Amino acid sequence: MSEHLFLSHTCSLMQRSQSNKTKPNQTKPFCSNRSLTMSPSDPEEGSRNDYDIDDHEISLALSRPIQLQRLYHLSHYLPRADLPTFPNPLDHNPFFHPYDGFYVSPTDVILRQIVYDLASSSAPNSSYHLAYHRAGPRSRIFFDPSEVHAAIVTCGGLCPGLNTVIRELVVGLWELYGVRHIFGIPSGYRGFYSADPVPLNPKLVHSWHKIGGTALQTSRGGFDLQKIVNSIQDRRFNQLYVIGGDGTMRGAVKIFNEIRSRGFKIVVTAIPKTVDNDVGIIDRSFGFQTAVETAQQAINAAHVEAESAVNGIGLVKLMGRSTGHIALHATLSSRDVDCCLIPENDFCLEGEGGLFEFLGLRLKENGHAVVVVAEGAGQNMIPRSDSQKEEKDESGNSVFLDVGAWLKSELKSWWARDHPGELFTVKYIDPTYMIRAVPANATDNLYCTLLAHSTIHGVMAVYTGFVSGPINGNYVYIPLAEVAESKNEVNTGDHKWAWVRSITNQPDFVKS
Ligand SMILES: Nc1ncnc2c1ncn2[C@@H]1O[C@H](COP(=O)(O)OP(=O)(O)O)[C@@H](O)[C@H]1O
Ligand SMILES: O=P(O)(O)OC[C@H]1O[C@](O)(COP(=O)(O)O)[C@@H](O)[C@@H]1O
Ligand SMILES: [Mg+2]
User: What reaction does this catalyse (predicted)?
Assistant: First the structure.
């Protein structure tokens, strides 16, 4: 799945770097502050210290090959004769003026990593620079727009921006490429074989970006591969846009493989949807910022309630099945939070270093405290029956118990035991669905638009089995299977989590 490209700029950077070695007084590339970048090859400038960068190390780092993550293209399994090409209709779109460089070529790439330690050759992947195909319009397309039959489906839980993505897929296909056969599949994967497709057009979807949820409806479970692919074939769909989270994408990989093995001229693409921001590789998922913003209202309310009570604790549970991104970002944005609990960190309640001790001190100092807990945190501590242990939703995801309700009850028991007769209040706010059922904010709406349009461009170029998404702020095409298996967890060793801890002053809550 990979090929090596030695790009000419790599060579030219190497040459620049090497030529600097022989002309010590010239400005070196990548050394912004000459006084901090003495090279050991310049004896008159002193001996090597911590700020030194060896030219040889720079050359080595820059001379690494670029490994391009290859994408599936219909030409990989269909004869070229079945894939006539057409000029991109954007050539004649009155609103576009394709200039030199407007169209993206297969050699346009975006590097996965932009932060490098030039001196490190032992770091993972350091033997090459990983790159992805840049997203964007191609000069030639492989679909006659009049023959396109596009199907759009939304699966899994809600996320702000779902309707915007659908809207922009419809408007983009219609306005940019002249596609007129666009259909919504109602109620998730099961809708392929249990419902009639709904014809979509720009007029119908015009104001959908202002509405939360998904106008196409969604569901969990109901993934029947053969029925889905048969339905796609029977209805002559040749473009499939699947919008959903990790489960949906694992399903999309199976659909893609089945379509490929049947040799159909059908493109499959997925648009990652996860309010939890738990999908890896891409910078962030759409709707996440809206969810964090909406969570502020719950935190503010918890703070007001806590402050207005004697020994008041405001407890807010936020979404995050296996990752604590929403809780973390909401905590960082709020500054009213005393403690943030996430699934990536175990915590203990009792004893020295435990949550109760910490909150007891906060109440003593401030008279109140605000706790934010992600829904997946502390699940291993909540007592559950055998049937609860086994419980799964229709998609096979484990059903979590309510960590907020459990924590509230534990807090009350602790206080009654250790501070009998003293006033104490816990106000538990569970805004779960409120943070994901809202329409996307302006930033997420714009993001959804770019996501939808960059996806359409890739599909019209008949890349298949791919996901479009931003890496380092640039839109790229990533193999679907890679995204489906990726995970984005909070790195509790990095600066962001340290920042949470420095704001809240919370300890690790480990048993001492
Ligand atoms: N491993 C899998 N293989 C095939 N389909 C799956 C898989 N996991 C989930 N699905 C299907 O994907 C859809 C959404 O999955 P779910 O886990 O509920 O949400 P999300 O996609 O948001 O993670 C459901 O219809 C489910 O049946
Ligand atoms: O009640 P539902 O609809 O199953 O949704 C609850 C789950 O959905 C989520 O919001 C998102 O999950 P998915 O993106 O995997 O669908 C989780 O945070 C939460 O556990
Ligand atoms: Mg999921």
Answer: beta-D-fructose 6-phosphate + ATP = beta-D-fructose 1,6-bisphosphate + ADP + H(+)
Residue with tokens 């919370």: 506
Cβ neighbours of residue 193 under 8 Å, at least 6 residues apart? 224, 227, 228, 230, 231
Cβ contacts of 323 within 8 Å, gap of 6 or more: 276, 277, 278, 342, 343, 344, 374, 376, 487, 488, 489, 490
CA distance 432 to 130: 38
Of the ranges 51-55, 222-226, 424-428, 433-437, which one carries the lowest mean pLDDT score? 51-55
Taking the C-alpha atoms of residue 186 and residue 197, their distance in angstroms, rounded to an integer, is 7
Confidence band, pLDDT 50/70/90 cuts, at residue 389: confident
pLDDT at 260 over 90: yes
Would strands 466-471 and 150-154 be described as parallel, antiparallel, or unpaired? unpaired
Report whether 435 belongs to an annotated binding site: yes
Query: What is the rounded CA–CA span in Å between residue 350 and residue 109?
Result: 52
What number is the average pLDDT over the span 213-241? 98
Output the CA torsion sign for 476, 479, 480, 482: negative
Mutate to test the pocket of ligand 1, among 223, 278, 394 (most ligand atoms within 8 A of CB): 223
Residue 31 CA to residue 25 CA, distance in Å, equals 12
> In terms of pLDDT, which residue wins out, 28 or 460?
460
Ligand 1 centroid–CA 245 distance in Å is 7
Whether residue 384 has its Cβ less than 6 Å from ligand 1: no
CA quadruple 192, 194, 199, 203: dihedral sign: negative
Provide, rounded to the nearest whole percent, the portion of the chain with pLDDT above 70: 86
